[in-house]
Amino acid sequence: MKSNWAIGDRDGWQTISSETHFESDHLRVVTEKVRSPARQHARPWTTVYRKAAVVVAPMTAEGKLVLIRQERVPIRAALWEVPAGQIDEDVSGAPQDPEAIALRELREETGYELSSSGELIPLGDFFSSAGFTSERASLFLARPVKPGADGPAHDESESILECRTFTPQEIGQMIAANEIRDANTLAVCARLCARGLLSLRA
Q: Is the same domain home to 61 and 44?
């Protein structure tokens, strides 16, 4: 398994067997028999292993967040989201630097970049859906950001329909109205609020 996807046994966990059903550059579907610290008998579990990812919340000097509206094929809908992307491996097979990937995704998906006095603040990580996938995303706040000279440079696989800035109060209203439903965006907003870096109250 590629180093960027691996979840090794530790703390009493033990993989008894593993069968790969599908593998691509982006994911690997595996059925494993796993013994956990709390269960004596191993049980089968089908897991989707994915590369680690980054999620970046871009904040302007005015305190607004930059969101993109992107079509998502699996749910046949377009969602408002913060920029995000997978961490690829370099030529040696080692994961690339998460901070560099976060700044790249910010630039490519929104056309924004850090101001000369800006900072990229690590906010920890989270698991997007731990019941079926190993995907772990590192969260970042980029502030302040400004529109870049070159604009966005979307990947061919992406379908980004628009990019807009929203006040924290607008973000809070969109979350309450179920207009923001993307796990990455909800997670990074929760982390920002918990750290006192964002207030969604009107």
A: no
